[in-house]
Amino acid sequence: MSDLPENADGKPLFYDPTERRIRSFVTRAGRLSTGQARALEELGPRFCIPYQKSLLDLDAAFGRKAPVILEIGFGMGDTTAAIAAGMPEKNFLGVEVHTPGVGSLLKLIGEQHLENLRIVQHDAVEVVTNMLAPESLAGVHVFFPDPWHKARHNKRRLIQPPFVSLLASRIAPGGYLHCATDWQDYAEQMLEVLSAEPTLANTAEGYAERPAYRPNTKFEKRGLRLGHGVWDLVFVKR
């Protein structure tokens, strides 16, 4: 019997990746810097995990047993590297589709000698569905996902009830889901969706204070100076 969330027809809400579904991202062809290309070639074989349609042995992937934090859509990897450096006792699995971002994070891994990071370059929904076992994660980070700000594109937003239900199923009791956005209407949607998930409980009355482990990025600082808001949401698995 499948452990995936089901719809009213009894069919999994997330399914074989060969089937059609709405994507929450657009694959962009980015230009690799020399350093990124070198990092992909030299460090990719060690720190990148190929996508597979079977469960990943996390202990074997990291070469040790430790709590695993999943980060979805790490961009250029600066935040991911900073958090991993500050929490050497935890393992971090980053998922990103864009090659320059993967190369950038690999470059940071090499420069900072980070041993607790691994990368899967693939669609996050498929990675979570097929590679991660139920209750295998200590936490999930989703920082500044694409807001798809046009109303007709809102359906492409990553934080939707089916995906949140799937993520929650992969988080161990006591683990957490931390989302952040600088778009107010997306923050409101996130709060509504996360609050409606019965296996999650809000750690705050509404939005949370930015946890100390999430660095304040240059992009974020610039936005705050311009009067833009940033909203953090931290929910724990019951």
Number of helices: 8
> How is the main sheet built?
7 strands, mixed
The CATH C-level class name: Alpha Beta
Q: CATH superfamily name? A: Vaccinia Virus protein VP39
Q: Uncertain spans, ≥5 residues at pLDDT below 50?
A: 1-18
GO molecular function: tRNA (guanine(46)-N7)-methyltransferase activity
Pathway: tRNA modification; N(7)-methylguanine-tRNA biosynthesis
Catalytic activity: guanosine(46) in tRNA + S-adenosyl-L-methionine = N(7)-methylguanosine(46) in tRNA + S-adenosyl-L-homocysteine
Family: Belongs to the class I-like SAM-binding methyltransferase superfamily. TrmB family.
Structural overview:
The protein has 238 residues and is an alpha/beta fold. It has one domain (34-237): Vaccinia Virus protein VP39 (Rossmann fold), CATH 3.40.50.150. It is 34% helix and 18% strand. It contains eight helices and seven strands; from the N terminus they run ααβαβαβαβαβαβαβ. It has a seven-stranded mixed sheet with strand order 3-2-1-4-5-7-6, sandwiched between helices. Helix 1 crosses helix 4 (99-112) and helix 3 (78-86) runs parallel beside helix 4 (99-112). The longest helix is centred in the first third of the chain and has 14 residues, at 34-47. It is globular. Residues 1-18 have low confidence and may be disordered. One of its GO terms (cellular component) is tRNA methyltransferase complex. Catalyzes the formation of N(7)-methylguanine at position 46 (m7G46) in tRNA. Belongs to the class I-like SAM-binding methyltransferase superfamily. TrmB family.
